[in-house]
Amino acid sequence: MKAFFEGIEYLFVNILFAPHDFLRSLELSSWFAANTINWIFMIICAGAMVYWIKQLKIFEDAGTEKQDTTAHSFFK
C-alpha cells in the first residue's frame, strides 16, 4: 500500500507539477514571462466580457429581452 501512495506522490510531484516548477524558476529571471499565462487568460476574459455586453445590447435594442418577473415559472 505504501508503494501505491508513493506512486501517486511521484505522479503529482515529478510529472503534473513540472510546469508549475518551471514557471516558479522562471519568475526569478523574468516576472513578465512567468505571468504570460495569466495575461493570456485576462485577455480572453476581457474579450468574452466585451462580446457578452455587445450581445446584451443587441437584444436590448431589438426588444426581444424579456425583463418581467414572470419570465420563469419559479418566480411566480
UniProtKB/TrEMBL annotation:
It comes from the Bacteria. The chain crosses the membrane at residues 31-53. Keywords: Membrane, Transmembrane, Transmembrane helix. InterPro entries: DUF6341 (IPR045922). The keyword Transmembrane applies. The keyword Transmembrane helix applies. This is Uracil phosphoribosyltransferase. The lineage of its organism: Bacteria, Pseudomonadati, Bacteroidota, Flavobacteriia, Flavobacteriales.
